[in-house]
Amino acid sequence: MAKIVVIGAGFAGHTAALYLGDKLGKKHTVTMINRHDSFAYIPSWIWVGVGHMKPEKTTFKLAPVYKRMNVYFVHGMATKVYPDEGQQFVEVDKANGDSVRVEYDYLLVATGPKLNFAGTPGLGPDQGENTYSVCSLPHVIQTRDKYLEYVERMKKGEKVKMVIGTGHPSATCQGAAFEFIVNVHKDLVKKGVREQAELLWLSNEQALGDFGVRGIQAKYKGELTSSEEFISAVFKDHDIKWQVQTGVKSVDEKKIYWENFEGEMGETDYDFAMLIPQFLGQPIQYIGKDKADVSDKVVNKGGFVIVDGIYGLPYDELEANPDAWPAQYQNPNYKNIFAAGIAFAPPGPISRPHTTPNGTSITAAPPRTGMVSGIIGRIVALNIIDLVRHGRMTHSERMTEMVAACIASMGDSLWDGNAAVMVIHPVVPDMRRYPNEGGRDLFTTHMEMGLGGAWMKRMLHDTFIWKLRGLPGWKIIPE
Ligand SMILES: Cc1cc2nc3c(=O)[nH]c(=O)nc-3n(C[C@H](O)[C@H](O)[C@H](O)COP(=O)(O)OP(=O)(O)OC[C@H]3O[C@@H](n4cnc5c(N)ncnc54)[C@H](O)[C@@H]3O)c2cc1C
What we know:
By secondary structure, this protein is an alpha/beta fold. It has helices at residues 11-24, 45-49, 62-68, 137-155, 174-190, 227-237, 315-320, 370-390, 451-468; strands at 3-7, 29-34, 38-40, 59-61, 72-82, 89-94, 99-103, 106-109, 113-116, 160-166, 197-202, 217-220, 223-226, 240-243, 246-251, 255-260, 265-269, 272-276, 278-281, 285-286, 337-339, 404-409, 419-424, 446-450. The strands form seven sheets. Strands 1, 2, 5, 6, 7, 8, 20 and 21 form an eight-stranded mixed sheet that branches. A hairpin with a 2-residue loop joins strand 12 (217-220) and strand 13 (223-226). Flavin-adenine dinucleotide (FAD) is lined by residues 7-13, 33-36, 42-43, 45-46, 77-78, 110-113, 134-135, 173, 176, 282, 284, 341-343, 368-371, 373, 406. Residues 7-13, 33-36, 42-43, 45-46, 77-78, 110-113, 134-135, 173, 176, 282, 284, 341-343, 368-371, 373, 406 line the site of flavin-adenine dinucleotide.
């Protein structure tokens, strides 16, 4: 009987656990270790942040789902992994105060990001409550409360400057910040106070609409257009100012201090700011047989799990080699350890890196969105199922092959809401297959905007929560 352990019940790990429980759970032992006892449907937090959705609408309890899906659930924090043969187990600090060891034959690390606010002095709710975040449920609730406080002040005639974007030179997740700024705009219009607010987009992207994926070239209304043109048209229409090519270095209660691509240092004053922090890997220690720390065999310096990618290539070589991106998300040193979602280490950035004359790297890190994370979670689960049943893996999907769709909410109303629907194929440009099209298939890569997108985004909330609860038909709903 095989023992399979998943750490982290986000899009990646939870998707994997559903497949593993469904296929192996009755004959083998599948265990999920998760810090929280609920799944969080993160994409809808944008609506929580502007007070349009109750936080509890975005979560559901994991235990009943796992009971139905034949998955053991350990509610706790994985702190250490002992990966050497003969003693492979995970040490967990359980939520009830106990410590347990969970043995494994196969381990999937799907722990998502550690939100590294400390990487930017003064940033975030825990460093003086200067700036806010939408990256965890308690943070987004705090953001909502502060934002609504400012709305009240605007109703009394106060002018407010809101700065939204990224809070570190190598931050990722620009898509979430984009959704937040546009939803803030819509909400302020609805509340009749838009005139009172100045909205500024501040980001480390090399160009507007880059999103850490080197931007998108696609057909829009029959014309070839770029995400830069697309997003700048939206921002102009919404009177949102923007400043890109900017790495935030520190923050205090009044100002955001930054450096730009040219190496110039500057500061921006603000009243309210939502800035995404740097993401690192979650700090789990890997300990060998002789009690030595073997973490460097499993994770890179950022704490992301090393898998079957080609690491250390100069950017131009990485750009030219789609096979440098991992296919099976398997650690090369411990073949029974896999990683999925934000937890795996990409071989490098997707957008061209930039170093300023002062030596600061201002480079958007590659996003691993919910859909990408779910797909990778499924691929890893199917390979573990293969290994348990037949001893060999048959599934693979690189981000240079993967199609991903992203529906960016631009107002949640089903009457006058809006959303930008972006389908990109592949997620990471493949210059070998599509050399003349910027690395992407122009037939499938697509951008669209309109009320229909707002309906789709709302429907996805219910459809995905249905799928992720493992309710009838869950497998036919794609990630
Ligand atoms: C506001 C917002 C909106 C977004 N909107 C979209 C969208 O519309 N579409 C989209 O595709 N993507 C969206 N994203 C991105 C998406 O949410 C992430 O890409 C996705 O959550 C990554 O999944 P993951 O499984 O890798 O990590 P996570 O979802 O972060 O899950 C990791 C899990 O592991 C647990 N964990 C961590 N460490 C440990 C430990 N040591 N022991 C036990 N458990 C642990 C965590 O508690 C968590 O439950 C959005 C992100 C944000 C912040």
